[in-house]
Amino acid sequence: MQITFTGTAGAGGVPLYGCECMACVRARQQPEHQRRPCSALVETDQVRLLLDAGLMDIHERFPANSLTAIVLTHFHADHVQGLFHLRWGKGAKLSIFCPPDPEGCADLYKNSGILNFLHLEALKSFEVGDLKITPLPLNHSKLTYGYAIETESGSRFAYLTDTVGLPEDSMQFLKSWRPFSMAIDCSHPPKINRPANHNDYNLALDIINKVRPQKSWLTHLTHEVDRWQMETKCKLSSNLAWAADGLTVQI
Amino acid sequence: MQITFTGTAGAGGVPLYGCECMACVRARQQPEHQRRPCSALVETDQVRLLLDAGLMDIHERFPANSLTAIVLTHFHADHVQGLFHLRWGKGAKLSIFCPPDPEGCADLYKNSGILNFLHLEALKSFEVGDLKITPLPLNHSKLTYGYAIETESGSRFAYLTDTVGLPEDSMQFLKSWRPFSMAIDCSHPPKINRPANHNDYNLALDIINKVRPQKSWLTHLTHEVDRWQMETKCKLSSNLAWAADGLTVQI
User: Fold this and answer.
1) CB distance from A11 to chain B under 8 Å?
2) What pLDDT digit, counting tens, does each position of A94-120 carry?
3) Domain count, chain B
4) What range defines the domain where residue A225 resides?
């Protein structure tokens, strides 16, 4: 399967509105360093699946009938805001697989338009075309799932945002699911105290060391992480990489 | 004062996602016919005021400190969705004048970031720089204000979306406020039955005939209105015009 990181930012993006730090200045000067709302496109011969809908131009990037479905990690605005426009479209319903959050976001459930919200059960696999997908509970301030995605030929990719650490059942699932590749929330540079809703760099590495994927990409990055990386020139080990908007990888 | 129609569409925009009607096909082929979320920029020597925040790229169009304030008509997503991103910015607070809607939209009040929401009282004027602005109650499915905007030199402009007809107190205000120019909701082509939440063409003209502005622009337009205009080749009288994205007028 092919993964494209369509967005790699935490809420606020890079550059951050009004920020003049070195990472934000660089992103304004060099668009390849810009980061849009965290999301990824999963493609196989049979399906084209968008993970999260925070990109505000998804209606332009993905014309009608070009997506098989959208899978949401959770209903915070920076992960669903592209749906506010898309929903008013015409034509076939678009399946939106999502956690069973009773509130959703604003009036998306009430005025769902062409969107067909399908609530998922944690750790209960479902299929979209040739993909088998298992929702993994994450630790966040709103009901959130990561996803373990597997092709018929056995390629495996885990997408884990937004989270701080991992619940034990998700950790156990991933430990028994090897070998696989992974994208993991890394919203903060190393912090002394455990952050509240997102991994810092240390927590992301701790998860990686425990579940031991073959390859990991750090995503849901902020201007603070980019600035820290610029300042420290932090080198990643060969099985680890920073995600970047537009980066495409084969799993 | 100078008015720029930064967006002239109802929810869904033109082209509408997945629609192949003649208006939507034309808008895809000829970008000058595209319509983005209804909004307008009001500029004087002293202020730069954005009416509504549904444009999903306001953080790119209007860099930090380039807007004096934002004034919201109401909290439907297509009028506020650009704030979801903007709020996480850094620096000075941005004043968001708005109706006293207790709910707002999603978590905008709870996580307001750099936004400073300021609730307005109907028919009670407030000042921003050299502008005097009076909130006018409108008829809509959510608490909604139109705005009567006046410069120190006496130029007057009324911005009236989203509404179906006008409440009597707003009608009386405008009748005694002449002479002025106006932008008015025209979401539907002529309908046999009175529409629920937005003017059709007939209701827009009825309001215009009652309050008698010097010049009116029809806005909050949909692909249905554009198609009807293409089919009927409807000619407007000289004191009336279709708004268009990017159109700039002097009041």
Assistant:
1) yes
2) 999 999 999 999 999 999 999 999 999
3) 1
4) 2-246
